[in-house]
Specification:
- The chain is an all-alpha fold.
- The chain has seven helices and no strands.
- α2 runs antiparallel to α3, α2 crosses α4 and α3 packs parallel to α6.
- The mean pLDDT is 89.
Length: 120
């Protein structure tokens, strides 16, 4: 409840909400010690309807496009994606919106990165 109140207090616009999610995700991808708490925060914001699936999709998309390269510099960055995906699946069950996965790179011939990312 406190998270929702703090998020809503400045009455963020849609673009500001997306920017806020991008900051949370940037921390999650780049700081493995904070990845799980960032995944939990994003999930709670979505559960309480403070942000939308579209916001999450747009914020996550920029990271997923460059994730393969990021993993060269930060090998643990995929852990945040796994934490976020698992928390969203647990929180939403059948109501999970797969639209956020549409931002994954399309596998090229002989290139299994998206599949390996999803399966760990």
């Amino acid at each position: 409840k406190k998270l929702v109140e703090s998020w809503n207090k400045p009455q963020p616009s849609s673009s500001q909400a997306k920017q806020g999610l991008e900051w949370l995700m940037d921390t999650g991808f780049t700081d493995s010690a904070k990845g799980d708490i960032m995944a939990e925060t994003v999930t709670e914001l979505l559960v309480h309807g403070v942000v939308s699936w579209e916001h999450v999709k747009e914020a996550l998309g920029g990271f997923l496009e460059g994730l393969m390269d990021m993993m060269l510099d930060i090998p643990t960055c995929g852990l945040f994606f796994h934490a976020l995906l698992s928390r969203l699946l647990l929180a939403f069950g059948r109501d999970f919106n797969g639209v956020i996965l549409s931002q994954l790179p399309i596998p090229e011939e002989g290139h299994e990165f998206p599949w390996k990312l999803l399966t760990g």
